[in-house]
Design brief:
heterodimer, A: mainly alpha, globular, B: alpha+beta, Dipeptide-binding Protein, domain 1, Dipeptide-binding Protein, domain 3, 2 domains, seven-stranded mixed sheet, about 25% helix
């Protein structure tokens, strides 16, 4: 097992290099760079003539090394990451990229993982209920919920929730805390305030996943419940609960576990969208702004982090799968 | 679904209900609490020593503890007195928190280098200029108000302006403010080409000469101009364009004073986390959690008082929640976690109505005159950005009056306004100045109504008269013979900013409207860097713009050829530019306006400019909207007719004199962070 893990980790290195290269290519694809944005601002707001602005922007390009050819810039960036853990400089925030990302990455992962966890838990439980009470009212309700959840765009749901909460229920929306709690020390009321804000992004991000897990679980479990060994187990006189949970679910859940790793990036991108609408202090708004202003080191670093998360979550999912399915062995 | 009632009945009821909404739109302003155009300068501000002064209790406590000098030593010899005439609720009481929201990350505290502290009112809290343009909205005859410059006089020949600075004012760290700071700002920020300040040497060039600034003594300065009486200079002496920089702080990083430093060091100095910064503003930033909140506390050395001698500001603390977009400010106000909101997006007018009309609503909502204009501008430049034959041919067409007329008559302006938001908050707009502008005159634009009347048949006739025919029968007109792209489809691209939803909506409507007269209009949305690059390079055909400023006397470049880079739809290229005959007239008038003191002549000039603008279809107005101001009911001293923007942003200039009765105040929490001498020791600039 450890050899397997070690080998997988070694394979990730060329993957990450490729991903970092393509991230850098994409981010630098639109014409201009951050200094072009600045140039426009100088003309529009500083009253500089276009010539003056262009001159100043060129000088800043030289100072920041933005006038170097693409491969030179990429090479410098990637070697700084590998040798010093220096992800570059963010022009927008005027701070090292690592500072900008660290502050927010934790919350980003918290939202995405919570949504992930809850979507799996609730989706699986509802799926089990749906399969064991096929065609009942509960099953129909769950199916309707699944269709709505899968087809509703996350940002739309976020907007509706914000509107209802703010205008009809008088609740504060946006961010993780009400303004008076942002700087307050931890207390019970602060925790409650956090939960009052936290459930919205978790719901928005997790809804589609919940619906999907529910449908998959239902279908798999129905398949499994019709198989021979389940019939045998029932015939042997085992309690229904034991049949379902100990035997059937354990097999039916394998596809879900298998896809746990693959669905993580979808949750992260769902989190990006939700946090932009909900004004959360996570990576979503920062990433969007970085792409808009071509703050390339910040955008490139974040894309690399997404890639690392994908790779690690795939690895964890594979390990989890081997735990659930004893037939799978890695060497 | 609605029981016995047929659907059409239900729809009718809903429709009537919808139409009733405008009847209850906002509250009417109380004349007793309205100030627009009523005051003189003497009613607003004066500089005088008062027999005694009082300060906020938290400052008195610090004085008692020996951490601050007494109030009489902190205030200038003659503080700036905010007269009670402008206070609709009278002088107030100290205390409480101003709760607000911002959506742009704090760049740094180096405001002179073109770096923002977050906009949304934060900049105004930490910056102070030589003059103040904001009070002009209250004046019968608008003129700049004194700020750090308390009085001034022109020389006989008008080439020199001598200004007297306030004496004894101090920065928030106790260092005296003197003429040295003003000269430092002017010579080493504004005039220095390596510093991206908000104004530059070209702003200060009159008669072909760059203005010089001379220090007469510690509190007297003299401008030397290259042309007599350049009145436009005052518009560059206020907030942002001439916000004073503390010399004792930034000379540490300026290469002209410290050879060990480069300009990069200057531009990366004063990062947002280096708190508290040195400021002359009413508040001092003390906590910044990026993406979450910025907290400011009162400045113990603030140099303004009210008529009773109470040191301003009344508010003790400010909480600025950081958000991704301005919509969060609306949500915060609705949830009673914020104190104000500018209501400018037609899409949320309905939501704000609902909120304000609730019986227990905690905020007032008032809509002002039409100030926000949406217009379509045509790229007239022959020297910049016309990269292919199609673009060049199109520019020639845009420069042809009949073609502009054809486009104008294809636009259903009232329809666009109604689509944005039905009711009296929006209306069709010809272009030129918004009807809420101080220089708008109905009588000037009325004669041209025909040019802007919705008449697609007339458009088609005009285009046919120019030679456009649909030769290939695909519904789109083809370029006439003899043009650079003869036979090709008439395709025009219109650019809209991705951040302005209303502009995109208008663009989509225009696609349909132009199709009806045979033009294939393509909408392109851009944001951020790519948008700026396109505008700077001039590589666009049409552009949908949102015009926020109604003041052509201050923001000349928004309305006409004020500089080589203005307006954005007719920028000069490397070889100069070819102005149309009426543009030449406009340029002359604008140049004259820069040097005209007489307010009547100024008004006449801007009326003439409006006439030229609208009469020649310089831009294609689409619709204009009223902006609204939503203010928490507990805030006092907010005039009923306070504009969202007139010369300067309205609410953003109120924190000096806004107050809340003690029983309604939100308790401050960070008054222990009020800066004292200790907080300014061993800082980055003192090493």
């Amino acid at each position: 097992m450890f050899k397997f893990i070690a080998r997988r980790l070694i394979y990730t290195v060329p993957t990450l290099i490729l991903i970092s290269f393509f991230s850098f290519v994409i981010i630098n694809a639109p014409p201009g760079d951050y200094m072009t944005t600045m140039q426009g601002v100088l003309v529009a707001q500083a009253g500089m003539t276009p010539a003056e602005a262009r001159e100043l922007a060129d000088r800043m390009r030289v100072a920041y090394g933005l006038d170097q050819p693409f491969l030179v810039r990429y090479g410098r960036w990637i070697s700084a990451i590998v040798t010093r853990g220096d992800f570059g400089f963010s022009f927008m925030y005027r701070r090292p990229v690592s500072e900008v990302i660290w502050q927010r990455f934790g919350m980003t992962l918290l939202v995405a993982l919570s949504a992930h966890l809850i979507s799996v838990l609730i989706g699986v439980l509802i799926g089990i209920y749906s399969a064991t009470h096929r065609y009942s009212w509960g099953d129909h309700a769950a199916t309707l919920f699944a269709f709505v959840g899968l087809s509703m765009p996350g940002f739309f749901l976020a907007l509706i929730l914000m509107y209802v909460l703010a205008f009809h229920l008088g609740q504060h929306v946006g961010g993780f805390f009400s303004p008076e709690y942002v700087l307050a020390p931890w207390s019970w009321s602060r925790f409650v305030d956090f939960l009052q804000h936290f459930w919205v992004p978790v719901l928005v991000v997790g809804l589609a996943g919940t619906a999907r897990n529910m449908r998959v679980m239902r279908a798999n479990l129905l398949d499994v419940l019709n198989s021979n060994y389940v019939r045998t187990a029932k015939a042997k006189g085992l309690a229904p609960r034991s049949v379902i949970y100990k035997h059937a679910v354990r097999n039916a859940i394998q596809p879900i576990v298998m896809y746990l790793g693959v669905t993580m990036p979808f949750l992260l991108s769902g989190e990006l969208v939700a946090s932009t609408v909900l004004n959360l202090p996570t990576m979503g708004p920062v990433f969007l702004a970085a792409l808009n202003t071509q703050d390339m080191y910040l955008a490139g670093s974040f894309m690399m982090l997404l890639a690392i998360v994908l790779v690690i979550s795939n690895l964890l999912a594979d390990i989890a799968l081997s735990w659930v399915d004893p037939r799978i062995r890695y060497d | 679904m609605f029981g016995k009632h047929p659907l059409w009945k239900v729809m009718a009821v809903l429709l009537v209900g919808l139409l009733l909404i405008p009847l209850g739109f906002g509250q009417e302003p109380d004349p007793e609490r309205s100030l627009r155009g009523k005051l003189q300068l003497v009613d607003i501000v004066e500089y005088r020593a008062l027999p005694s002064y009082t300060e906020a209790p938290e400052l008195a406590a610090l004085v008692a503890a020996g951490l601050l000098p007494p109030i009489s030593e902190r205030l200038p010899r003659e503080p700036r007195i905010m007269k009670s005439t402008q206070m609709v609720d009278g002088p107030g009481v100290h205390g409480g928190v101003w709760r607000d929201t911002f959506a742009v990350p704090v760049e740094s505290w180096n405001w002179g280098a073109g770096q923002t502290q977050g906009w949304f009112g934060i900049n105004e809290m930490v910056q102070a200029g030589l003059v103040d343009l904001f009070p002009m909205w209250m004046m019968e005859t608008p003129e700049p108000a004194p700020m750090l410059a308390k009085s001034w006089a022109w020389s006989e020949d008008g080439y020199q302006l001598t200004m007297n600075l306030i004496e004894g004012a101090r920065w928030s760290d106790g260092t005296p403010f003197t003429a040295d700071d003003v000269l430092f700002t002017f010579n080493h920020y504004i005039l220095d080409p390596n510093v991206p300040s908000w104004a530059s040497a070209s702003t200060w060039t009159f008669g072909g000469k760059v203005t010089q600034l001379e220090k007469i003594d510690d509190y007297t300065i003299r401008f030397h101009f290259g042309a007599p009486f350049p009145m436009a200079a005052f518009h560059s002496m206020g907030y942002l364009q001439f916000s004073i920089m503390p010399k004792h702080v930034f000379s540490h990083w300026h290469p002209a004073f410290n050879p060990a430093m480069t300009y990069m060091d200057l531009l990366t100095s004063a990062p947002p986390q280096d708190l508290p910064p040195v400021t002359l503003g009413a508040f001092v930033p003390v906590i910044y959690r990026p993406g979450e909140i910025l907290v400011l506390v009162r400045n113990p050395y603030f140099w303004m008082v009210d008529e009773q001698g109470q040191q301003l500001p009344y508010k003790s603390e400010v909480w600025f929640s950081e958000a991704r977009s301005g919509v969060q400010r609306t949500f915060n106000l609705i949830a009673d976690r914020g104190d104000r909101d500018n209501v400018e997006n037609p899409a949320i007018f309905g939501m704000m109505f609902e909120g304000a009309r609730a019986p227990d609503a905690h905020f007032n909502l008032r809509f002002e005159d039409f100030r926000i204009g949406f217009r379509l501008v045509m790229n007239l430049s022959t020297t910049l950005g016309a990269e292919d034959a199609r673009a060049r041919a199109l520019r020639e067409m845009f420069r042809t009056f009949e073609f502009r007329q054809a486009l104008s008559r294809a636009i259903d302006r009232d329809g666009l306004a109604a689509a944005a938001f039905p009711g009296p908050l929006t209306q069709g707009w010809f272009g030129g100045y918004q009807s809420g502008s101080p220089f708008f005159e109905e009588g000037i634009v009325a004669p041209y109504a025909e040019l802007y009347a919705f008449n697609p048949n007339s458009s088609r006739e005009l285009l046919a008269g120019l030679g456009f025919r649909d030769t290939d029968g695909d519904g789109v007109l083809n370029w006439p013979q003899g043009t650079l792209v003869a036979g090709q489809n008439l395709i025009i691209e219109v650019l809209a900013s991705g951040d302005v939803a209303a502009a995109i909506d208008a663009g989509q409507a225009l696609v349909a409207l132009f199709r009806a007269i045979g033009i294939d209009l393509r909408l392109r949305t851009l944001t951020g860097g790519p948008l700026e690059a396109t505008l700077t390079a001039g590589t666009f055909d049409l552009l949908i713009q949102r015009v926020d400023v109604p003041t052509p006397d201050v923001h000349m470049g928004v309305f006409g050829p004020a500089t080589l880079g203005d307006p954005v739809w007719h920028q000069a290229g490397p070889g100069g530019r070819e102005l149309l005959p009426f543009e030449v007239q406009m340029e002359e008038l604008l140049n004259e306006a820069r040097f005209t003191i007489d307010p009547e002549r100024r008004t006449a000039i801007f009326h003439e400019l409006l006439d030229l603008h609208v009469g020649n279809i310089y831009t294609l107005g689409l619709y204009e909207a009223r902006a609204g101001l939503a203010v928490h009911k507990r805030l006092h001293n907010i005039p009923d007719d306070l504009p969202t923007f007139m010369y300067e942003w309205g609410m953003e200039n109120m924190p000096w004199i806004a107050w809340v009765p003690s029983e309604l105040q939100v308790a401050p929490r960070h008054l222990d962070l009020i800066p004292t001498a200790e907080d300014y020791q061993n800082r980055a600039w003192s090493r």
